[in-house]
Amino acid sequence: MHPLHGLNSSHRRPGEVHVIVGPMFAGKTTALLRRVTAESDTGRSVAMIKSSKDTRYAKDAVVTHDGTKFPCWPLPDLLSFKHKIGDEAYQKLDVIGIDEAQFFGDLYDFCCEAADLDGKTIVIAGLDGDYLRRSFGSVLDVIPLADTVTKLTARCELCGKRAFFTLRKTDELQTELIGGADVYMPVCRLHYANEQRSAAMETARGSFGATIAQNDLVVKTAATV
User: Fold this and answer.
1) Binding-site residue set
2) Helix/strand/coil percent split, the chain, to 5
3) Catalytic residue from among 16, 39, 88, 100
4) How many whole angstroms separate alpha carbon 43 and alpha carbon 77?
């Protein structure tokens, strides 16, 4: 082992991982920008990354729902970041913010490398669950790596109480469906359960009606024959 190896490692600032999660419209991006801006104000070098899939407000900026912007690197994956920014610029970085983290399949590997090996402070913001309240992407996978985890809440769009969940307003079934208030709304537990029951009843009624129509067709066909 090189005699300076241990010295360099012991004097390098240790990395950190901070995770911010919650439903849509909970202020996750706002909290992320606040943290990254605070780090920048102390003189630390910062960079922001977001998924290139998210083009709702801007392609090359992280934008909150109220319009606050912060320039970023839009990327399809995280492990390409070092190559994109260049090794020299990467080495000078202290803090890396990641918005819409649920869209990055390599989130866990990137955090391990950047925090554990490179000494970076990583601040992550993303959805912890999808519209079915199932784990979304790799966000929950990085919690065992985290120094801190912050769970934010929104306001239920139907009653104004604390909202923990994201409800989809449309009939699309795919997990990844990027949208805003036209597609999603934050809801409390009561209204999430109520809306899910209503949707299930509508589906059941639709299936029942289709079955009756099909049976009528069979009967009419048989009568004709």
Assistant:
1) 184
2) 40, 20, 40
3) 100
4) 27
pLDDT of residue 215: 52
Structure tokens at 162: 């604390």
How far apart CA 135 and CA 102 sit, in angstroms, is 9
| CA pseudo-torsion sign 183, 34, 60, 176 | negative
Cβ count within 10 A of residue 24? 21
Largest CA distance in the chain: 95
34: nearest Cα among 24, 17, 46: 46
Tell me, yes or no, if 16 is annotated catalytic: no
Give 170-178's long-range contacts (Cβ < 8 A, gap of 24+). Answer: 175/130, 175/136, 176/53, 176/103, 178/53, 178/54, 178/56
pTM, whole model, 2 decimals? 0.81
Annotated binding site for substrate: 184
Say if strands 165-168 and 162-163 run parallel, antiparallel, or are unpaired. unpaired
Tens of pLDDT, residue by residue over 5-14, are 333 444 567 8
**Is residue 8 within a helix (H) or strand (E), and if so which, with residue range?**
helix 5-11
